[in-house]
Amino acid sequence: MSEGAEFAALVDATRAAHPAELPAAVEAAYRAIAQALRAVGAADAEAEPPQHLTFEALWARYRQQLTASPLASG
Length: 74
Known about the structure:
By secondary structure, the chain is mainly α. It has helices at residues 3-17, 21-39, 44-47, 55-67. The chain contains four helices and no strands. 0% of the residues are buried.
């Protein structure tokens, strides 16, 4: 199994075992980054991203890139 495929399998297993935790971690990261940006003077429009991507959307993008990556071949 290639390195990329092994990583993807581990993430898929984690998603299955803990379906709510990865999305919650992404949302917590958005909140923490916005708070940190505001703490150094960013306005709300600067601190909040134009869109919040879900874990599933981010994971789907990664999987698409992995398929085209040299990491996909073993």
